[in-house]
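sanity check this:
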Amino acid sequence: MLYDSVEALRAGLAAGFTLDAAGRAAVADEDWCRRKGARLLAENAALNADAAVRDAARYAARRLAAALDVVPASIQDYYAAMGRGETAVRTVPAVNLRGMSFDMALALFEAALATDAGAFIIEIARSEIGYTFQEPAEFAAVVLAAGVAAGWQGPVFLQGDHVQVKAASYHADADAELGAVKALIRDEIAAGFYNIDVDTSTLVDLSPDSLDAQQRLNYEVGAELTAFIRELEPAGVTVSVGGEIGEVGKKNSTVEEFRAYMDGFARSLAARRSGAIGISKISVQTGTSHGGVPRADGSVADVKLDFGVLESIGDAGRADYGLSGTVQHGASTLPDDLFDRFPASRASEIHLATGFQNMIFDDSAFPADLRERIHAHLEAKHAGERKEGDSREQFLYKLRKKAWGPFKAELWGLPAATRAHFRARLQGKFVFYMEKLGVAGSRAEVARHVAPVDVPAPPPAGLAG
């Protein structure tokens, strides 16, 4: 149900909870909040055409979640403990939610509860925010509402994935591009994203002979953005910041490149903000690519992944720089039998996205007429992005991620039975990853190291009362 005013929203929520003038939620009916109120809030936060109602729903979702102990948190202290060898060997899954985000997040929380997992991240990339039509405040509200609906309690690690500096835009107008990235960082932190992957690897220039020169723009701009993040942190929160030395899909990373980046980053950060905490992890390139490599028939080709990169750079990062380890991108389309090798290689984090999108779009339960309309839309609106030599199937596979935004309301509004089917399949896959990556049973361990900080703010006009 989409409300036509903030007053109507407030009245509709009154059956479950109210907000006082300071933004504290008084829960009158917890069961109603979990069973009905959470989805109502998520739907209005994501789909309501009235900006005032959307903002009110987003705020109310976050305050209700806090009242029920579903709180955005930084994974910084857990990763610091990982770097010191004080945790079990685990690879933390970071799951990108491109669409149907309430149902996907609900499945993820349910999988975490089923496996007693606490070490998992929910994220969205800068590019995904654009083509999925999900602003940080919306994304956070929907995820937290899903946590309420699932019965989750504890920290929720929201992450800005690939907060990326676009190389062409930077070289055309550095101030404008950095201004856009900083505006996104500001919005993400305000929404409760206390984990941010700063991706300046696009600025690496492999033409100079010196590794320091190759990485210079990467570490200098990365340090500038990290210092900016430290200025914005709420009291009691240390944002977990990730760095990146190799752009995904390009050449594999080396220990020597990593050291050049880390040493330059430390110098640059100290010059900008003396004593500032640096990064907690490093993303590297091992041979994967985002979304996998589609064949002419639309299936995904196998890749040759170098686990030695994860292990050697991770060992150096823990021993010499106090990092949690390495981060693997572009992994969700890899064969299932590879996933237990990530904790064996002591990778600290792995990013998973396209595989979940494939599970939904390729499922026989996905409405055939909607699929055809999506294909027609992509061929009409994105024909210019079709690469020479790509078959129709390859084109549609690569571009269908851009259907999430234009078809957002329809996908949220799929029949309840269809959404339940997708949730069940996704939950099973999430359980698989949690078990293979070693994060099953991690909830108590995370709680020992992470103490979420509630960051309240006054409610929007007309919502309290």
Remarks:
- The longest strand covers residues 154-164.
